[in-house]
Amino acid sequence: VLPPQRLLANIESQTVFVGSGVLVYQDLISSALDDRAVLAPPTAHQLRSSAVAYLAVQQWLNGNTEKPADMLPLYVRPSDAELNLTVKQSG
């Protein structure tokens, strides 16, 4: 896990942010990335695949040249399931 400032410093292209961290860091994200940051609406912060797909389609409809099927998620940290599996495997 990186400090938010370090993660944001490495982002060069327009990026859609979704998840509970957006609510906490929205001001930092917006100030660091300006128009490269697309913040998901609060209703999309439940990480359901349908919410992510909706955001991808919205970006495409708003002029993003990347097709929704070609957009890839970048997870900032492993999921809880991955963390729990690592603990089980090491114990």
What report would you give on this structure?
With about 90 residues, the chain is mainly alpha-helical. Helix content is about 50%, strand content about 5%. It contains four helices and two strands, in the order αβαβαα. The chain has helices at about 5-10, 20-35, 50-60, 80-90, and strands at about 15, 35-40. α2 (about 20-35) links the parallel β1 and β2 (about 35-40). The longest helix has 14 residues, at about 20-35.
What's this entry about, in short?
The protein is mostly helical and 91 residues long. The chain contains four helices and two strands; from the N terminus they run H-E-H-E-H-H. 48% of the residues lie in helices and 7% in strands.
Strand order of the largest sheet: 1-2
Q: What fraction of residues sit in β-strands?
A: 5-15%
Intertermini distance: 22 Å
* Topology pattern, helix = H, strand = E: HEHEHH
Number of strands: 2
